[in-house]
Amino acid sequence: QHEEFLNDGEQHHADLAEFLRGIQNGAMHDDGPNPLPNEDSAPAAFDFSTMRPGRIFTMAGERYRYLEDMDNGNHMIIRDDAIRDINFYNQEGAMDDWYSTLSQEVQDMVQPVSDSFDTGQLLPEDIIWDDDESRWMITNLAALNIANDVTEIDPSGSPRAFVLSVADVLRLSGPGRGFPTALERGHGALGWWWTRTPWLPGRAWRVGNRGGFAGPDSIGIANSTGSMRPALIINQGN
Question: What three-state secondary structure class fits 51?
Fold first, then answer.
């Protein structure tokens, strides 16, 4: 609500808007001197070891959300805004296209992940939601066959972008994590986004524009309100 504060009719310091924006995006919680969220910077300008999960940053022309420290210098990040008009079928090709546009400095940091994932299938009738309306969390994940579909570094795989699984989204959600609130997991401005987790052939799960899980929906859906949100695992010591 920093816009309401700034529009109260009073005169404020010229730098106040950027300061408040930094607080909103987590910049003021960092232990290190990372660039402000909207300050487009080269990869070398960042110290990811000091970043708080959920921190927004702009690197080499792309805006990201920092998700987690995976140890040994590895860090998971995700594009902050969904790429529009991509259906579930076409995600792999669209991710390859997006990855090819990243600066060479960024590509040089990207770690390999599996070339294919054992996604399992998530059936609606098997789910126990924490809240049937918000669908923020699944409370019986351990009992489901999607539980082990967690993205990790795979030396036998390829350095590439990937789509998060439902299990990934769940473990990265909650206080102190990459998606601390529903609003930070998904909202109208950022767009809804596909997970890689299917239901039956022809349907898959996505994160809706209120941050809860939506679907399972037809994998042919592609529109201007959301679609694909690629993630990366990076290591500056590559």
Answer: coil
Q: What are phi and psi of 142, to 5 degrees?
A: -60, -25
98-146 pLDDT per residue, tens: 999 999 999 999 999 999 999 999 999 999 999 999 999 999 999 999 9
Alpha carbon distance 218, 199 (integer Å): 10
Angle 230-235-238 from CA coordinates, rounded to 5°: 125
Distances (CA, A) of 95 to 14, 36, 128, 207: 39, 27, 32, 18
| pTM of the entire predicted model | 0.87
C-alpha angle with apex 234: 232 to 238, nearest 5 degrees? 145
